Amino acid sequence: MLDLNQIHLFVQIVKAGSFAGAARRLGIPTNTVSRHIRQLEQAADLPFLHRSTRKITLTAAGHAFYERCTPSIEDLSRVSEETLDAGRVPSGVLRVAAPAGFFDILGIKHTAEFLSLHPSVRLEFVLDDAKTDLIAESIDVAFRSGRLIDSRSSGTRLVQSHSILAASPAYIKKYGSPASPQALSNHACIPLARDPGRVQWRLDGPGGSTEVTVSGSFRANTAQAVMQAAVAGLGIALLPYPLTVPALETRQLVRVLDEYRQEGISMHAIVLSRRQTSRAVAAFVEFMSSRLLREAASWNEPR
Fold first, then answer.
1. Same structural domain for residues 173 and 113?
2. What is the pTM (predicted TM-score) of this model?
3. Maximum CA extent, the chain
4. pLDDT digits (tens, 9 = 90+) for 236-271
5. Which of 94, 126, 221, 287 could potentially form a cystine with 194 if both were Cys, beta carbons 3.0 to 4.6 Å apart?
6. Are residue 209 and residue 260 in the same domain, yes or no?
7. Strand partners, 210
8. What is the total count of domains within the chain?
9. Over the range 225-261, which residues count as b (16 or more CB within 10 Å of their CB) and which as e?
């Protein structure tokens, strides 16, 4: 009979994409993980994994085994977590994915407050504006903007804000300020973009929505980098309003086309559906939700 603990290890390795990732997630040495998987393969008399120096891949037998055993292992894990969580305080390691500028907007104060309230919890943040693969990166909670499209996850909308157009005073002094959204096509703009090619900005203003194609000599894939480029005078940027507040207050940036903005930027806390019962996850999402809602009043400037 195959060892259920070793099967659980196998499932975690496939999800993490490596022995090291699974070991980190489970808090055990990598060589222990490797030894148990060798024992599992010997007991089954089948090779489940192809190993290389950089990654692991499933054999045909491993893929079939993973597909058949994963639902049962996850059900057992969920029941175990629910039973144990009922009588204990939030604890364990939470991996949190968030935009690169997350702490630039919120600061570290809320995270520090949460950790002081829950000393048995450890937080590991993965900061990137790209859409992190929640399963591959073993993410427990992800803060994301925009619409939810992953059926494997559920999301709680925390706050909603908007983006504004801004540039440095030096840029405006040298090149002037655009008189209309269409005039942006004649200015150096700084797109927040990960792919090459044309970028369109959709702006909402007094006459409704309008779209304009923008370009410039600089682009970046994080909002923080785009804002730094705008402060340096490289062009006009479309940035989340909360991120720009400090730079606007110190006059490092000034508003452009004040009557136009990009509406509907929603921040969600996303949790993989099978991790919703974790007491630590629930406590963290509830805490951050309350703190972000408190911050939201200063994010939504009057029109």
1. no
2. 0.55
3. 76
4. 999 888 788 889 999 999 999 989 888 765 565 666
5. 221
6. yes
7. 203
8. 3
9. bbbbbbbebbbbbbbbbbbbeebeeeebbbbbbeebb
